[in-house]
Amino acid sequence: MIKHSTSKKKYKVTNWREYNNGLRTRGSLTFWFSEDFEKEWFATSDSHPQRGRPFTYSNTCITLILALRHKDIFSN
Question: pLDDT tens, 59-72?
């Protein structure tokens, strides 16, 4: 029979500044968008907007949100 060790390996931290910075940035996520992205985010507005009418989003916006949802970026 082979015995498996269930205890974690212990590592000695020697550079505390780098270790703490790594913990702070562990959950950061950066997005880079093209310059024309902002222009394409919202769909063209109607000539007669009505009060209480929901926004109309562009295909670019919907595609991005679905891609983020599909990759489970926002879930733990």
Answer: 888 888 888 776 65
